[in-house]
Amino acid sequence: MKRAIPWILSATLSIALVAYFSEFHRLQTKIGILSQHTFHDHQDVRRAVIRAHLADADRPIVIVGDSITEMASFPNDLDGRPLINAGIGGATIADYAALASKIFEGSQPSLIIVAIGANDTTNPNRQQNMKNLLSVLKPYAPLVVIDPPTGQTVDGTHPTRSVSRLWVQSIVAEILRSSGKN
Fold this sequence. Notes:
The chain is α/β, with parallel strands linked by helices. The protein is built from six helices and five strands, in the order ααβαββαβαβα. Helix 5 (126-137) links the parallel strand 4 and strand 5. Helix 2 (42-56) packs across helix 4 (93-104) and helix 4 runs parallel beside helix 5.
């Protein structure tokens, strides 16, 4: 019996090793399949949503921005015109300048509100990037530039609900003023 113990241990260890490598290979294959899965990029999805809204709207007012804009609650229409929230979370001014022609191609907004810049506070090229964005947007509609909201934030960047509401009210007032309704 003493002679059989090493053989039994050896056989058991061999079976365990084969099982381990078999399971390891199975997991590697699953991880490989998962790593090939394509996830949607937020900017691509938002761009498609914004383009769809623009295609359905007649001479809309469009609010261009970053996550602060995307998260804001704007009215669906204003002054008899549809209001389209074209905010894209994470977008910088330069990002939006690169995307703008793809977003606005074929559309005819009546007014574009530019409310972007929270992701550019430390960018030394901020002013030049804004000039570039405005020159890209200018052929599509008259422009109004609005500063990002100031006041209390929930995370250092995004405004609290009350600050966001006040900011939205100021944008609505500016739209009405630019339309001669104020």
